[in-house]
Amino acid sequence: MAFTVIWYGRQGIVDKEMFDAEKTAKDHAISMFQTRKGDDGIVSVEIRKENGTVVFSHAEN
Fold first, then answer.
1. Which of 5, 12, 21, 61 lies in disulfide reach of 17, CB 3.0 to 4.6 Å?
2. Distance (Å, rounded) from C-alpha 47 to C-alpha 33?
3. pTM, to two decimals
């Protein structure tokens, strides 16, 4: 099953990345959040299954 990490900025979707495993996607999202927040203006991230179900989300102001 594929999982999509979706990075959001204030104006909407900034980037999407695909992963084969939920744990890998979650570890990536958590570890990269602060870097992407500073570099790309990311305000939130979520992980979705192929069917669109959100399995993880994180946001900061």
1. 5
2. 13
3. 0.94
